[in-house]
């Protein structure tokens, strides 16, 4: 019990870090068009694309660096705290910016992304270091991600009703608070000595473990859809149904709440039955219901379909994260997680930029068809590779 209780406390604390990072991030999504307008940006797709892309450019360039630094020093805690505090200060600066050229806003947004990815990626990597089953630990990460995004969207929508920059002030306070609290985390020790620097080094983990390409590919596709909904989904809901930020946040929440609530039990399920079924079946169904969003005739029907998107996303997401842990060397988990987040962030960027271009050039319905169809094609194409994977089974509830 003396060992189990600290592990449980650490799991809760680390999940709280992950939750806070995502909650703060998604607070902004329902009102991105209004927010960028308050900074002088123009066009819900054009300025919104740049605003979202700047943060994820920071994610891409620094996710691997944080992981490699943590692996090389065999420390997690100080870097989690530094990432959260740095991100909180950047959010605060954004909230307080006077009228400045829009490129200044994008630079601060980039810096915010460079810091917050440290807290997020290393929070997940430290969860991987814990015992108790990869599916359970990644399920804890998944439910934190899902709850953060699920609650962030509707709460952010309501905060925009108070003021366009109120979500930024709230995000800053939360990030600074969790950064200070992170100093009390235990360092697991024995995490790594790999020290690959930068995003390229993180991606090169596949040179040692080529099988990591499989979860990396699914991570790219899953985050592509997240980026797609963050920009195109918000613009589509507001254009088709005439919704404001508050109602848009509720629609996004219809996806994220089931996505959150089902992450933990479905992560444990993947411990019991393996990763192949949840990843393949979940991704295939996930793509299908994304296409269905474009054909939903009313906000109520759209909310139901978005709930299905969340449920099927919850089936594949924790299993994909757990598969990274199954395949990575123990001494390189931080770097492997950084690589996964680099690929995921590239996927988000592709979803924002590519989705915006598709919606602007070919219309919203075509954009949804491409986003959902790509997920389906990936599940079909990678099914043989998934079946060939010989990842070891991890501990389950029943065996503990």
* Head-to-tail CA distance between termini: 12 Å
What would you call the structural class?
A: mainly alpha
Number of helices: 16
Q: Report the sheet with the most strands, covering strand number, pairing sense and barrel closure.
A: none
- Name the helicity range: over 70%
List the secondary-structure elements in sequence, H or E: HHHHHHHHHHHHHHHH
Count of domain modules: 1
Number of strands: 0
Q: Round the mean pLDDT to the nearest integer and report it.
A: 82
Beta fraction of the residues? under 5%
CATH topology: Growth Hormone, Chain: A
The low-pLDDT segments are 190-197, 390-400
Q: Per the principal axes of the C-alpha atoms, what is the gross shape?
A: globular
> Which CATH-level-2 architecture?
Up-down Bundle
Cα radius of gyration in angstroms: 19 Å
CATH class: Mainly Alpha
Q: Can you tell me the CATH superfamily? A: MFS general substrate transporter like domains
Could you please describe the fold and organization of this structure?
With 400 residues, the protein is mostly helical. It has a single domain, classed as Growth Hormone, Chain: A (Up-down Bundle). The protein has 16 helices and no strands. Helix 6 packs antiparallel against helix 11 and helix 15 runs antiparallel to helix 16. The longest helix has 31 residues. It is globular. The two termini are 12 Å apart.
């Amino acid at each position: 019990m003396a060992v189990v209780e600290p592990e449980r406390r650490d799991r809760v604390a680390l999940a709280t870090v992950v939750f806070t990072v995502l909650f703060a991030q998604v607070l902004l999504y329902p009102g991105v068009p209004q927010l960028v307008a308050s900074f002088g940006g123009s066009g819900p797709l054009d300025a919104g694309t740049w605003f979202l892309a700047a943060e994820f450019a920071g994610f891409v360039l620094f996710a691997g660096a944080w992981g490699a630094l943590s692996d090389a020093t065999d420390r997690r805690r100080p870097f989690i705290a530094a990432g959260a505090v740095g991100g909180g200060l950047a959010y605060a600066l954004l909230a307080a910016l006077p009228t400045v050229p829009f490129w200044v806003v994008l630079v601060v947004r980039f810096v915010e992304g460079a810091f917050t990815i440290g807290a997020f990626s290393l929070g997940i990597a430290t969860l991987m270091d814990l015992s108790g089953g990869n599916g359970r630990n990644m399920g804890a990460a998944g439910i934190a991600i899902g709850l953060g995004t699920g609650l962030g969207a509707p709460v952010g929508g309501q905060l925009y009703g108070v003021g366009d920059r109120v979500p930024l002030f709230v995000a800053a306070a939360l990030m600074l608070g969790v950064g200070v609290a992170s100093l009390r985390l235990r360092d697991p020790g024995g995490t790594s000595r790999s020290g690959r620097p930068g995003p390229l080094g993180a991606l090169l983990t596949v040179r040692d473990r080529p099988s990591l390409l499989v979860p990396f590919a699914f991570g790219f596709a899953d985050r592509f859809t997240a980026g797609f909904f963050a920009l195109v989904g918000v613009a589509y809901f507001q254009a088709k149904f005439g919704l404001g930020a508050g109602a848009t946040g509720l629609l996004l929440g219809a996806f994220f709440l089931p996505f959150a609530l089902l992450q933990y039990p479905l992560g444990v399920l993947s411990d019991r039955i393996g990763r192949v079924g949840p990843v393949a079946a979940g991704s295939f169904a996930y793509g299908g219901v994304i296409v269905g969003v474009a054909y939903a005739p009313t906000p109520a029907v759209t909310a139901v379909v978005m709930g299905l998107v969340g449920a099927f996303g919850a089936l594949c997401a924790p299993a994909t994260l757990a598969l990274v842990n199954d395949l990575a060397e123990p001494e390189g988990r931080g770097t492997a997680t950084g690589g996964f987040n680099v690929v995921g962030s590239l996927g988000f960027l592709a979803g924002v930029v590519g989705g915006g271009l598709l919606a602007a050039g070919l219309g919203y319905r075509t954009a949804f068809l491409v986003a959902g169809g790509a997920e389906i094609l990936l599940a079909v194409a990678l099914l043989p590779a998934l079946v060939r994977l010989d990842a070891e089974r991890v501990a389950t509830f029943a065996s503990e």
